[in-house]
């Protein structure tokens, strides 16, 4: 990269951005974060719930911060989060940043961190390489040199952070909650399916256990359970 070249804007999606990507994406690649957990620890007043009855959506939490909840978390040893790194067309970077800032406005802040992946059995830092794009190769590019990616993180000190809840209580909250963007359980099901499809290694115990509990509530109520 020459001194005058502006680094590409790369954003890592670990929640709804996986199944509903941002606009103006020119490259994308699955990968994972190390030293974080993905938990339904964020109230959603504006998308999957209401101010009176907030739903729950995922946020990233630093593993050392989440360890204070280890006695109530059934999966305290998790510290890897799979998602997708998106490179944004430089021409539309300002527009996409504004779009994401609005979309993630309920208690999220932006941080930077490296994204990892596995290539030929070797773990390394990865990132979409916008400079290598060809018209016929739109989707996946990897770059082994270490760079950082932007990510929206719900910090523990933000007012929407709810912390750890018992899994059955959390499942019931998600099952009953509905907001302007639709049912909270739809968000859960879409996320679980999207994470499964990222990689053979993209297993998330907390996410998949929660999915099973909510599907069980659907089954008890006679609602058809999504596959």
Automatic annotation (TrEMBL):
<dbReference type="InterPro" id="IPR006840">
    <property type="entry name" value="ChaC"/>
</dbReference>
<dbReference type="GO" id="GO:0016740">
    <property type="term" value="F:transferase activity"/>
</dbReference>
<protein>
    <recommendedName>
        <fullName>glutathione-specific gamma-glutamylcyclotransferase</fullName>
        <ecNumber>4.3.2.7</ecNumber>
    </recommendedName>
</protein>
<keyword id="KW-0456">Lyase</keyword>
<dbReference type="GO" id="GO:0005737">
    <property type="term" value="C:cytoplasm"/>
</dbReference>
<dbReference type="InterPro" id="IPR013024">
    <property type="entry name" value="GGCT-like"/>
</dbReference>
<dbReference type="GO" id="GO:0061928">
    <property type="term" value="F:glutathione specific gamma-glutamylcyclotransferase activity"/>
</dbReference>
<keyword id="KW-0808">Transferase</keyword>
<dbReference type="GO" id="GO:0006751">
    <property type="term" value="P:glutathione catabolic process"/>
</dbReference>
<dbReference type="Pfam" id="PF04752">
    <property type="entry name" value="ChaC"/>
</dbReference>
<dbReference type="InterPro" id="IPR036568">
    <property type="entry name" value="GGCT-like_sf"/>
</dbReference>
